[in-house]
Amino acid sequence: MAGDVLSQNEIDALLSALSTGEMTADEIKKEEETKKVKNYDFKRALRFSKDQIRSLTRIHENFARLLTTFFSAQLRTYVQISVASVDQIPFEEFIRSIPNITLINVFEVPPLDGNILMEINPNIAYSMLDRLMGGAGISTSKIESLTEIESKIMTNLFERSFDNLREAWMNISDIDPILTELEVNPQFLQMISPNETVVVISFNTIIGETSGMINICIPHVVLEPIVPNLSVRYWMQTNKKAVSPEQLAILENRVKSASLPVVAELGHSEITIEDFLLLQPLDVIQLNQKIEEPLVLRVGNIPKFTVQPGQLKKKMAVQVMETLKGGNDDDE
Question: Which of 159, 145, 99, 106 has its CA nearest to residue 123?
């Protein structure tokens, strides 16, 4: 009672009980001292804090956006994927919650131990298959009778789709997802103990006019080594990742090979609009540049050097004389 906040009605009822003698102050004090016992289900042990669950939600919201782009390109139709929920439940409860016949991809995620499951609702799975084989994306839900060719097509699709998970997870772990098994009956999956805690990320999925769920099941044993990386403090510390020497070398080489326009100005002049409109072939426009003065060399439209015009191997050329100070300005 000490940790509860009473409403005004409850306060009025309590005062009324005291005034009428229905309850004494000693009884109220005894009730406050009574220990409150809260039931705890050890089969539903909560291994992750709310902070860690929020981090997993953010990661997989990014994964959902990447999947939306990937499947839209592969299926050439309207696709919308969004995170519906992120829960931690026993593995047995997850198995009971999905259809008896469904499409389950089992992935290894080295260097982490254990496997990750990606369960695709039959409506969604067969709609994808129909699109990949040139159909309109109609779902017929015959997952239990996939041919070898159909299984291979679906395997290739989801194997490539998990590359997006690598990108979504890159801030917490560098994983390399590998598809190891394609299963249609969840009862045959004996990955972990039935009471083991798993995190289940459910995605609302719309493909054309077909809708359904995609679930990703991540056992606690997979996430255990990187649980500290799911904290807000870790995310704040890694917000600005240090650039490795290899990345710096690649960036430097790309900058060095970038193309820039270089223009040597012979001079410039100003004329009136009337003179401009009256210009005829063979007319001469006098520039403000004297012949004995050096020219200005512009790099990317920015004056950077003074140069001297000349010829090199029968081609016009300029010789750099000096660097202009304040060359970051457009004005000379």
Answer: 99
